[in-house]
Specification:
This protein is α+β, with helices and mostly antiparallel strands. Helices cover 20% and strands 37% of the residues.
């Protein structure tokens, strides 16, 4: 039986939170900035992960994902494409986490007991920093969504034009 087949599975949701990286190109350059991904450090587990958390009873998964991003990172987010879900055992109990790509909008981080640090990292550095291998595949899934405004995405500076 897979974790998703069990009605007792813990339901959770989160986001792979991203923002355009600060440009290092000289002024006037048409070079497109890269992306940075937000990772959270949870002192209880001493791990680095994407912001996520358990859904409240009756809470829609996307609403829960955005709530968790705000609670853990201090940032509001604009949701994008749904990413592949992740299923695993947590403390011997099945857990199912749904994820979305989400662009950080406004906000600022404030440490808490649950999350004491965040890092904004380029995708390769984020992939290397993530504690769980299952979280690394989400970086690839995010990059495959061709985010609006991201390098190479339709409408992004330097992106190929379509007729």
């Amino acid at each position: 039986m897979s974790p998703a087949d069990d009605d007792t599975a813990v339901r959770a949701a989160g986001c792979v939170l991203w923002r355009p990286a600060p440009s290092t190109a000289p002024p006037g350059s048409t070079a497109s900035p890269g992306l940075e991904l937000c990772l959270v450090h949870r002192p209880k587990y001493d791990d680095w992960s994407h912001p996520k958390g358990k859904l409240k009873p009756g809470e829609a998964p996307l609403a829960g994902a955005l709530r968790e991003v705000a609670e853990e990172t201090g940032y509001a987010a604009e949701p994008g494409a749904e990413l592949p879900g992740v299923r695993y055992l947590a403390n011997g109990r099945p857990k199912e986490v749904r994820y979305w790509a989400a662009a950080a909008t406004t906000g600022a981080f404030a440490p808490s007991d649950e999350v004491d640090r965040i890092l904004w990292l380029p995708p390769e550095a984020a992939r290397a920093r993530l504690t769980q291998p299952r979280d690394r595949a989400l970086v690839d899934a995010l990059l495959a969504t061709r985010l609006p405004g991201a390098p190479g995405a339709p409408g992004a500076p330097g992106a190929p034009r379509t007729a």
